[in-house]
């Protein structure tokens, strides 16, 4: 299930860093305290809204911003949503937002192959060991790139506890085909499709390791259950840190959205602070 959470922005012009996944990851961990996450897999997007760029980062000027949170564990999503709506206001970096509504993104059809776009960087390995291998560049059209993602996906599916050994064995059809025309176009324009990002500890404040993330369209041949898993739980590594969220290419996700009833919880609290010193970014 993918939940699209709509917030009202209280202070237009407030700023977040260009890549703010660590801030959101810390917020989400705070909101999941009390839920036994266990082997559950989840994923989330960046904060989406109308922005302008400055040296400090992204300035948000839309009246509303959205966050997509997804998992196959509906109980965890309901727990997360109920906790969000116990707060009148939340501080995310400089942004002050109030939760307003939730929509559910209905599952799309998954033709084989399905063409995806990356709405957050795709990471193929993300060990927190600082040996430099996390930053290695792997050619997207190489067998090695596809093999890394296959091994990562099968490992995550197996450890989710949702699939039998027989099912995992049946998911052998798997191939990632990058849109090389798009990649070559970026190269000619001197634009990057692969960058170095920083993984942080659970507090979201202390850097732990650097990783390489890729952002480009690709097609995937895989079993329908594999498509379902990566669409809901993210693709590749560091998905609970906000990496590897996908969407279907050439499709408007808003056309798939339906209203979702917000689970009830305790009375609203004044504010949840996510404490980051902007001067230290």
From TrEMBL:
Superkingdom as given in the UniProt entry = Bacteria
Molecular function terms, GO-annotated: hydrolase activity, acting on ester bonds; RNA binding
The residues covered by the CRISPR associated protein Cas6 C-terminal domain are: 116-248
Q: Which GO terms describe its biological process?
A: defense response to virus
Keywords recorded for this protein, A-Z: Antiviral defense, RNA-binding
Family as reported in the entry's similarity comment: Belongs to the CRISPR-associated protein Cas6/Cse3/CasE family.
Report what the protein is called.
Answer: CRISPR-associated endoribonuclease Cas6
Q: List the source organism.
A: Thermoflexibacter ruber
């Amino acid at each position: 299930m993918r939940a699209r959470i709509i917030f009202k922005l209280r202070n237009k012009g407030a700023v977040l860093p260009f890549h703010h996944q660590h801030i959101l990851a810390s917020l989400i961990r705070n909101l999941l305290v009390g839920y036994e996450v266990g082997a559950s897999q989840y994923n989330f997007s960046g904060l989406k809204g109308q922005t302008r760029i400055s040296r400090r980062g992204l300035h948000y000027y839309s009246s509303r911003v959205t966050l997509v949170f997804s998992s196959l564990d509906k109980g965890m999503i309901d727990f997360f949503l109920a906790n969000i709506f116990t707060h009148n206001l939340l501080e995310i970096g400089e942004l002050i937002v109030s939760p307003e509504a939730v929509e559910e993104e209905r599952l799309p059809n998954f033709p084989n192959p399905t063409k995806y776009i990356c709405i957050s960087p795709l990471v193929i390995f993300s060990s927190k060991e600082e040996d430099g291998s996390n930053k290695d560049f792997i050619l997207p059209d190489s067998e090695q790139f596809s093999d890394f993602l296959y091994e990562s996906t099968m490992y995550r599916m197996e450890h989710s506890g949702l699939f039998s050994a027989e099912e995992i064995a049946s998911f052998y059809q798997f191939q990632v085909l990058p849109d090389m025309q798009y990649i070559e176009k970026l190269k000619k324009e001197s634009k990057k499709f692969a960058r170095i990002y920083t993984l942080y500890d659970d507090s979201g404040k202390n850097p732990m390791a650097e990783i390489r993330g890729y952002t480009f369209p690709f097609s995937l041949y895989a079993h329908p259950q594999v498509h379902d898993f990566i669409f809901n739980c993210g693709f590749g590594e560091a998905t609970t840190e906000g990496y590897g969220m996908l969407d279907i290419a050439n499709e408007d996700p808003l056309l798939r959205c339906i209203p979702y009833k917000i689970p009830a919880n305790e009375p609203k609290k004044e504010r949840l602070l996510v404490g980051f010193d902007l001067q230290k970014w």
